Amino acid sequence: MIKIRNITKRYGAHAALDGVDLDVAPGEVYGILGRSGAGKSTLLRTVNVLERPEAGTVTVFGQELTSLGEGDLARARRRIGMIFQQYHLLQRRTVAANVALPLELAGRTKGEQRRRVAELLDRVGLADKAGAYPAQLSGGQRQRVAIARSLAAEPHVLLSDEATSALDPETTTSILGLLRDLNRELNLTILLITHEHGVIRQVADTVSVIEAGRIVSTETTAEFTARSEAPAGAAAALVPGATSLATDRPTAEAATGRIESDHADALTPRPAPGPAARSEANGPQS
Amino acid sequence: MIDLLGPATVETLEMVAATSALAVLGGIPLGVFLTLAPKPIARPLGAIVNAGRSLPFIILLILVMPLTRAVVGTTIGPEAAIVPLALGAIPFYARLVESSLHEVDPGLLEAGRSLGMRTWHLVTKVLLPEALPSLIRGFTVTVVAVIGYSAMAGVVGGGGLGDLALRYGYQRFETDILLATVALLIVLVQAIQSGGDLLARRLDRRGPS
């Protein structure tokens, strides 16, 4: 579905991406985990060539996007949905008009647009907000609108750029749940980037860790989780029912430290549920 | 006095309305171009815009007289005054348009590109609509500046309230006419500013309301 071969992207002397390969299979949710500056955002933007790599190829649906001119590329992008951390909704358009935007670009009639917008808003649970403006919505609602917009042109791939990083844990869970449902029901392939373990664990099938512009590991989420949790297994039992990174993060630190040196310290924890956990989680970083 | 003020007000309104329309027609494309054009093109263009703006309007008025004669056929009267007024107003508004467009969140442009937009759609569906309240505020400022410039049009026999104030109020010591023109100009500027502010506020969707 998505095939990336040996891409390189430099900003001056700094290599943001340094020979990256990536294969995303149809219908899977693929997570890329890394700290800020690791290159994950640049990597995601090369998939629809918002960032043009200096070397290497990006192929989506068998079409090599890196070889296309701007016109063909713009058309190809319509088949690749994208959502963002800051939603990027047009402030002066209503919710319905935002969702209709890709349909306008595709030249659909007003009637078709209305039907499809109603269907999409219903799908993301915002049928009653069609006439509202983005500024009147909560963060989670805005991201739902952005998801509806990204799906309007019926893409088979969705790129998610830290889509839940500005949201609280409950809203994150509900947005990730929505992405999971869309993945299953529409057979939508999702490539997401995040700096949070919890996101990977909740939604990804496969995870790659990126560091300094290179993919350093690729494995199933089950394998990844087992590896991350192993040294902290005993301590994690102290926090029954804990599922998010925030809660098991201090225990990982309390353990051997092996994980931190690897990649766990790249991952900014969410605000932890209790004051004790929070101070422990943030202590070493602040 | 009404006999003098009435026609002068009409002349001022004509000059200001025509110039403002030209400021929009010329200033918006120029402002978009200054914002989006690659630097090797935008820089020299920006320098020309700056040159136009650095001339005192009264000098511009005289400098462009040959152009005015070529376009309007005469250098005297309100129609002739519109040429230098437009040449002053277009670069003025273009710079304000440029700064309004720079205020649009670059993330919105990225989202637009991710939806398959090219330059035309980015301008017509993202940049201009999102900047509209700010574009209207800039337009209000431009119209007020044009009212000020139009007062100098009296120099070329352009007529209008400024001309009246100068000829009757100042040169003939008819203070009541001077005060009446000033009052009219103040009311005009206030009305335009309030109208512009109101419109911009109503179109602004950034706050929860």
Count of alpha and pi helical runs of chain B:
9
Q: Which pair of protein chains has the largest interface, and what are the residue counts?
A: A-B, 31 and 23 residues
- What percent of the residues of chain B sit in helical stretches (DSSP H or I)? over 70%
Q: Using the CA coordinates, give the radius of gyration of chain B.
A: 19 Å
Q: What's the assembly state of these chains?
A: heterodimer
What sort of overall outline of chain A do the alpha carbons produce when their principal axes are compared? globular
Number of helices of chain A: 12
Strand content of chain A: 15-25%
Summarize the helix and strand pattern of chain A as letters.
EEEHEEHEHHHEHEHEEHHHHH
**In what order do the strands lie side by side in the largest sheet of chain A?**
6-7-8-3-9-10
Task: Give the termini separation of chain A.
Answer: 41 Å
N- and C-termini, Cα separation of chain B: 47 Å
Look at the structure and give the mean pLDDT of chain A: 85
Structural class of chain A: alpha/beta
Could you describe the largest sheet of chain B, including whether it forms a barrel? none
Assign an overall shape of chain B. globular
List the uncertain runs of chain B: none
| Poorly predicted residue ranges of chain A | 233-286
| Strand/helix succession of chain B | HHHHHHHHH
